[in-house]
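Ligand: 4'-deoxy-4'-aminopyridoxal-5'-phosphate. Inputs:
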Amino acid sequence: SSSRIAGLGTTIFAEMSVLAARTGAVNLGQGFPDTDGPTEVVERAVEALRGGRNQYAPGTGVPELRAAIAAHQQRFYGLVVDPDTEVAVTTGATEAIASALLGLVDPGDEVIALEPYYDSYVAMLQMSGAVRRPVTLRAPDFRLPIDELRAAVTPRTTAILLNTPHNPTGSVLRPEELKAIAAIAIEHDLVVISDEVYEHLTFDGRRHVPIATLPGMAERTLTISSGGKTFSFTGWKIGWATGPARLVQAMLGAKQFLTYTSGSPLQPAIAHALGAEDAYFTDFTARLQSQRDQLCEGLREVGLEVYVPEGTYFVTTDIRPLGFDDGLDFCRSLPERAGVAAIPHQVFYDPDTHSSSRDNPGRPLVRWAFCKRPEVLREAIDRLAVLG
Ligand code: PMP
Ligand code: GLN
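Predicted complex:
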């Protein structure tokens, strides 16, 4: 195999989901809901499948989905984007991230990203030839260390890869943090690639603020999201990016040769979903918040130290109060030991900066997904009692 993928191994999500399936464990590892999204959205996809929308979509996405994405950005954030030149549909947010990095970053360019980071970031930065500059969010509150961010910028830095709400920590960037990032990006003329797939999952009344809404940022930000998270159709892999035409064009320059276009019949269905009434979005957030509370309380009862997330589908815990210290070992044995699967934070820290697990800040941290039905969460908590 090539040096481009050297050391990347197998994604932790595949490893843990295979282990969960083999052992019959309750899977709180990989983040996917155990309930499908709205039936009427499925019906739209069925209509499209039966209605002959089965050939290639335009490379940028079907017009009604691009229009719906633009309308969504305007409705929720007041962001105005041209559906013809400033919106592109991708095969999940994953392809948007991949094609953005391939289309915007030269080998040797430095890219700053918030660590712990979603595992495809490491892989795609490596494949694009970029030099990774992680800035670490640390327990217990996972705030952005602004001075460290500023210190990470060098003359070779070209982009910041952001993620808010943040997977795996569950933190949501605050207005003053976004302002600080914006000031740095403007001062050094950096592009910001902002992964906002959990934009509709912020809790306790917090609001998601796209960094593109800050002064001077719309012209330098590519904002990425996905129908998978917001509408519970993770398997459809319909994502998108919005931003100035020059950034969208550069991303499309790569995307056209990766997949050319993304699944035609699913696009009109996601377009319909994006137009849902406000109640859909508020109910969705409320349901996930209640599941968050249930799982946080259960994990606390089990004896773990719980860092209550401000957003996303995930809660992070420290396993040391139960006498464990290595999250990777813990997660590899948890399905056999307790019949539950979870994800170790360790794998979300930069392999170059933390080559040994001893100096990995994520070593004692474990991530649990709460995008599961209350009875499933109950069952997981009951099973975890054997740890106490
Ligand atoms: N970014 C983050 C932060 C995620 O958690 C995920 C989860 N799947 C993705 C991107 C990928 O999204 P998609 O499934 O739409 O490719
Ligand atoms: N984003 C989800 C997670 O973090 C799913 C990831 C995946 O399967 N690649 O769990």
